[in-house]
Amino acid sequence: METFNLFIKSIFVDNMIFAYFLGMCSYLAVSKTVKTSTGLGIAVTFVLLITVPVNYLLDTYVLREGALTWLNESFASVDLSFLSFILFIAIIASMVQIVEMVVERYAPALYAQLGIFLPLIAVNCAILGASLFMQQRNFANVGQATVYGLGSGLGWMLAIVALAAVREHLKYNKIPAPLKGLGIAFILTGLMGMAFMGFMGIKF
Amino acid sequence: MSPERKDILFGPLSKNNPVIVLVLGICSALAVTAQLKPALVMGVSVTVVVAFSNVIISLLRNTIPSRIRIIVQLVVVAALVIIVEQILKAYAYEVWGQLSVYIGLIITNCILMGRLEAFALGNGPFDSFLDGIGNGLGYTAILVIVAFFRELLGSGALLGFHIIPQSFYDAGYMNNGLMIMPPMALIVVGCIIWVHRSINKDLQEK
Question: In this complex, is the C-beta atom of B59 within 8 Å of any C-beta atom belonging to chain A?
């Protein structure tokens, strides 16, 4: 039950876009059509699903204070957590590379659809952000970390598809010239964020 | 200073602003602006990291093979961010706590990658340094404007000091709690873009 709560919470309440503003750059740049934003959403969810548990294992068995005791009792006081940024980003960059190669080999249609977005995911703040939040929240086991990664990815995808759907219709509306494009996208995201605040405190 | 260098340094403050014109580095720009102090610290940290990573990559630009340049850039930036984080942790622990993961997220801040790719790989170290400082200041400027309005209207204070006099509250004035919530950051930035584009008409989208 706790895990299910975590899943719902990471999609709606702790939404990557509306609550933490992570991954905004690609969110604003790509959300012009529903089709491409769905593709990017799937790719981000996929990468989050893989990188968060891998980084969780790295954090638990290598980086945390006393994490190296499985190697030797005398390492109990070793604290490598200052290395976490550089190792997390290295894991993410290499995972994205592997995902890219696997997708290219086994699903060439999806690969062609995602195109340039796949390699760019490595520098999407939502990916690194999820790993850093995972480190901060001290999840009990690798299962919870996986669920958190999946939930954050789905939340991000929900946000980008919703914005793209609204933006497709904006073409037919009269908007003040200085607000066109970027400005209205910001204000729309703000309004959607207010709506999502209604999910706060939801529990099963 | 020659006119070109002046343009490199001061262009990013308005005409080429990284946040509201080039749409780079928005993630962290919004999250840390509920109060003025963390916003200022974040702005200074990003300025330092952009300036020095620009210099380092510019010095290395002829030796980096272009196929692995992204990894090299990420490693240089991550190393600088770790230094900044350790300094903040040592000398400004409270602010470090408030900024939490957003310090680490400077690594994936698009301003850094954008400036490294677009400027440092093709220009000398001194120009790259000026470009880094200019873009950092442009980023800081937006952060400070957003944080100013959010802290003033949301908690009636600036840098933690109460600005709005008690007589206002006695007369029925209330702090707008919504200003501290995340959605208002987006709407404030939207309004800044609106004002900025009404002044600079050539930036308006068709």
Answer: no
Rounded distance between C-alpha atoms, residue B32 and residue B101, angstroms: 10
Considering only CB atoms, A190 lies closest to which of B82, B86, B187, namely B187
Computed over every residue of chain A, the mean pLDDT equals: 83
Are A124 and A44 a contacting pair, CB within 8 Å?
yes
Distance CA B193, CA B172 (A): 32
A138 C-beta neighbours (distance < 10 Å), count: 10
CB A17 within 8 A of CB A160: yes
Q: What is the pTM of this model?
A: 0.83
Neighbour tally for A203: CB within 10 Å: 8
Beta-carbon contacts of residue B132 (< 8 Å; ≥ 6 apart) = B47, B50, B51, B52, B53, B54, B55, B115, B120
Low-confidence ranges of chain B (pLDDT < 70): 1, 206
If we measure between CA atoms, which residue out of B35, B32, B42, B30 comes closest to residue B184?
Answer: B30
Tell me how far apart the alpha carbons of residues A115 and B120 are, in angstroms, rounded to a whole number. 26
| CB-count burial class (<10 Å; 0-12, 13-18, 19+) for B129 | buried
Cα B10 to Cα B17: distance, rounded to the nearest angstrom = 10
Q: How confident is the model at residue A154 (pLDDT cuts 50, 70, 90)?
A: very high
Q: Letter for the amino acid at B52?
A: F
- If you ran DSSP here, which 8-state letter would residue B145 be given? H
* DSSP code per residue over A39-105: HHHHHHHHHHHHHHHHHHHHIIIIISTTGGGGT-GGGTT---GGGHHHHHHHHHHHHHHHHHHHHHH
Asked casually if ipTM beats, i.e. exceeds, 0.95, the reply is no
Name the residue among B65, B99, B64, B106 with its Cα closest to residue B83: B106
Lowest mean pLDDT, pick from A159-163, A187-191, B135-139, B166-170: B166-170
CA atoms of A38 and A45, how far apart (whole Å): 10
**Chain A interface, best mutation among B81, B180, B193, B203, by max A CB count within 10 A:** B193
CA distance B26 to B110: 8
Q: Taking CB atoms and an 8 Å limit, are B190 and A179 in contact across chains?
A: yes
Q: How many residue pairs from chains A and B have C-beta atoms closer than 8 A?
A: 135
Q: Can you read off the two tokens belonging to residue A17?
A: 């876009």
